[in-house]
Amino acid sequence: MPWSGLRPGGGSMDDLVLESKGLCYRYPCGKAALTGLDLRVMRGRKLAVLGANGSGKTTLFLCLNGILRPQSGALALRGRPVSYARRDLLEWRRRVGVVFQEADDQVVAGTVMQDVAFGPLNLGLSHQEARARAAEVLQALKIEHFRDRPTHELSHGERKLVAIAGVLAMRPEVVILDEPTSGIDPEGAQQVLRVLETVHDQGATLAISTHDMDMAYEWADDAVILSEGRTCRQGPVREVFADAAALKQARLRPPWLLEIARGMRAGGILKDDAPTIRSRRQLLEMLSRS
User: What is the reported pLDDT for 49?
Assistant: First the structure.
């Protein structure tokens, strides 16, 4: 079965797999990016990380993968403090994979097959094993026809998919994606989301940053709102999006579906105890029955 290595072993689906407490990070130029940030990533769930530009999302992700080391605060993986020793870093990055916002920063090899096999090779797999794992992921993502294409000939959306494939080939438990649908057309964005659903169905824990509040509201199980390097609110997506004060503090607008539902309740069209509308499909189905 594809990505069998992604399926979490043991424990309930609500286990805490990644946690940060009081993370502080300041860049060499003196800019403070994280100022005491707390985060919980629960096993097997989909987390949306929300915030305006400069709120600390990208810096947080780089810390969660060990690429950046915070000046203070604590990070734990599976309940154990992380270590920055070389061997421990390799294991950490095998468990927690990050897909950068800019695919050009991640897709660097000559062909797609070479690029996707690069991560498994770094894990110590043989060339044959690495290529077999890359082929498995490309097939599972339905982009096996890319395998021999030069990476410089790919479109932006195709490069995003290849970057995701490169991370998945390392079979991480947690896949973190920085703005995975930014800069691509709606069809490409839907393809990325379908890929993420497939990965999640295979057992992966997912965390994405996004400015697309509508997509986050429909897609995520949990959400966290960041502002100026700190956590404003975190919890189940319905509770977080209902916190108007936290959204305002982070300069975020509520999803249009949430605003429509509030208007329908205020107008008596939707009962107070009616199920929460989380998708366009649910809204259309409800309207067709009314």
Answer: 97
Task: Give the pLDDT of residue 290.
Answer: 63
Give me the pLDDT at residue 1, please. 31
Q: Are residues 140 and 261 in the same domain?
A: no
> Which two structure tokens, joined as six digits, stand for 133?
């794992």
Q: Are residues 149 and 283 in the same domain?
A: no
Q: What gap in Å lies between CA 177 and CA 219, rounded to an integer?
A: 14
Residue 8: its pLDDT value, please? 37
Same domain, 181 and 58: yes
CA distance 80 to 70: 17
CA triple 242-248-253, angle to 5 deg: 70
The pair of structure tokens assigned to 10 is 């043991």
Please report which residue ranges of the chain form alpha helices under DSSP H. Answer: 57-64, 86-95, 112-122, 127-140, 156-168, 186-201, 213-219, 237-241, 244-249, 256-266, 280-289
**pLDDT of amino acid 124:** 84
For 285, the domain range is: 255-290
Taking alpha carbons only, the member of 33, 29, 38, 98 closest to residue 71 is 33
Token pair in block for residue 205: 């824990």
Report how far apart the first and last C-alpha atoms of the chain are (Å, whole number). Answer: 43
Which parts of the chain have pLDDT scores under 70?
1-14, 273-275, 287, 290
- State the pTM of this model: 0.85
Would you state the pLDDT for residue 73? 95
Which long-range contacts link 120-123 to residues 24+ away (Cβ below 8 Å)? Answer: 120/169, 120/170, 122/90, 123/90, 123/94, 123/170
